């Protein structure tokens, strides 16, 4: 079907004004008098709508006038400029074909709906202004991330989703199985017999692609992952989902400084891409969702990010300990209240906090010379706190195995990972960006359920 | 660290020849005499290698000469043109720093290894020529697909991986659960009590994002998915994996013709992108993996694809039924032997077969006026057979529910899907492309285990 998109009409209007065009879309509102009427339509390709004027010269004038919000129509007509009106042009319809009607029961009538209600109709909510904006921007952010890494010749690696290892804490993982639950096979000892399972062993859904990603960085030098990860945490908060997407770049012949430069470059690139390519949507968020959004993002895109060590940060925070619910002291993990104070009130810009105590960070992080801290970094941003976490990796076989022994991790569970330290080990580093956190940050949306098309959270797996 | 990539040296050599450069990479081979030696190194950013000449003027000459294949080094030195040699330039090393040694036990010594063996060291195989080529091309194909759709303003939708519906056949799905397998909670009737499970119900891993994708096409008009899908099929073949990635575009205000144009455009775009951006890798595949590859791909990229209806195709095939293992007759499904005969011997180019009997296709496909066939299409390509399958969707509420009743599908399991036919239904269509099939097709690799970084198949979930 040869239909022009509303995006194309807005982007290149000089090519279409004064000409006959055909468009297809959905009725957002309709009003009519005895002899003519107006339809506001949206075709999903652009945030703005298109006004259609139709008159009783059309043989189906009555049919059109009876349409409900949500109906699908195809309109042919002359595109005329309307310099005196709010919208730049409208179509004077010569023909209106009804593709599909709607009814008075259509849940998205003109009135405003709460976000809570819209979550119950996740299959229809992308037709509203808010979710048109959210999910177009989500798509653009995803593409900007790919573009950033691909332009720098990073190799995109699909790390596995189903995993036989439980290296990051089995308690929070989802089990994957094809065993007959009503009739589980048993070993002679009476345990569940996973030899009968699809993979011949216990398997779960991954919580991170990092360890697999490192193997590819040691072959391609610069790689990134972008895929789903899973947490079976019983956290019913606005920031946790059981299924979400992560970006995990990993760079070889690189240290923590390179890692921070990569993260800073990526965040600025993505912000600029979205400000450039989703102007209407970003204006909408700034106006209706989060008033300070554009100023905050412009600030991030143009600041040189700050740097502070964890130890320095603790000194800063201890001076104002009375304002915090959780008091800080060296060795404690930073809470969102501390992170936001640092980035919003002290530095007033994005801030890398580096060199955390080893005991609050993962086993694979590179030990610093003080033997107390590791070469880790968290990026804190105003309005949210931590958005990225990364580190240089321990590339020394002896140090890594010693640390694993301290933490009671078994070497045989990490054989492939240790091989990387046996054969051509080199400095390398990486970070993780929770994709949904990033979407929340760039749109100002406050609940993770509103930036995932069909969110999965505790007790909720609808659609 | 300020290291230049080997890719950059090759792409812009005029900027570097005659200058001092620093590079980091891994030793592919090394040979030395008493006073000088050669290292061939690869840094993973480019298919070609870089030759390093070093001499006994370096204080660590002996250390370098003892290096094993696989060691990681950083080299500083003068890049000099070598017009008389095979390679365009080499580095005369002024400094060689050993980042990480390797040992004689390193599994990737110079000799050739079988693909079967390399599968057992999936964490190291990306360091070989073959897998450097495969996984860089895999990355480029993924990006080309995003680029194709994003340039056309399609919205990228992340459809859910964990699903509470079993709309496409529960027998082949993986169950997802957090129940204690050794001690399953039971209902008063003695059944497993899924009310105690994480999502309060039975859940599985998705086999397709299409139904969810359709809801977004009815909001954004043009969308695509690109994400993992899962099959718990007990098929131990070279073409089946339990976890693989799929691309599923969906377009509204569009019919089967539009769908085929989109598929043809995408495939040509991706082929051209890879031929352009992975010249060295594609030459390698053509020379060492699949002799006719480049000719076949050029042919696909420049042909206008053929079109034939299923009914016409059966007439063609029936005439030569004696050459087939499976004899055809109207109503049967096409096997690979039939598909390849049509595309390779009859049409000698990619071929769309359309309008299949309704009984061999899914319930959601649009019924044709003959009431016997549906508006489905399969794209067949020389050398492989089917690579894409798609259809126009049934957008008529009455026809769709009637077909569901014939197939004993319960309306309550498809409420959100049926809503799309109640509120502003319109012609729409889409297709599915198995990403790994596409990678196999473009690289000539014959086994799906060799185009997935860490493949998951029956009884195999390593790394």
UniProtKB/TrEMBL annotation, chains A, B:
GO cellular component: cytoplasm
Gene Ontology molecular function terms on file: asparagine-tRNA ligase activity; ATP binding; catalytic activity, acting on a protein; nucleic acid binding; transferase activity
One Pfam short name: tRNA-synt_2
Catalysed reactions listed for this entry: tRNA(Asn) + L-asparagine + ATP = L-asparaginyl-tRNA(Asn) + AMP + diphosphate + H(+)
Keywords: Aminoacyl-tRNA synthetase, ATP-binding, Cytoplasm, Ligase, Nucleotide-binding, Protein biosynthesis
Domain Aminoacyl-transfer RNA synthetases class-II family profile: 135-453
Entry EC number(s): 6.1.1.22
One of the GO biological process terms: asparaginyl-tRNA aminoacylation
Major localization class: cytoplasm
Top EC class of this enzyme: ligase
Recorded family membership: Belongs to the class-II aminoacyl-tRNA synthetase family.
Subunit record text: Homodimer.
Matching PANTHER family: ASPARAGINE--TRNA LIGASE, MITOCHONDRIAL-RELATED, ASPARTYL/LYSYL-TRNA SYNTHETASE
HAMAP family named among the record's database cross-references: Asn_tRNA_synth (MF_00534)
Protein name: Asparagine--tRNA ligase
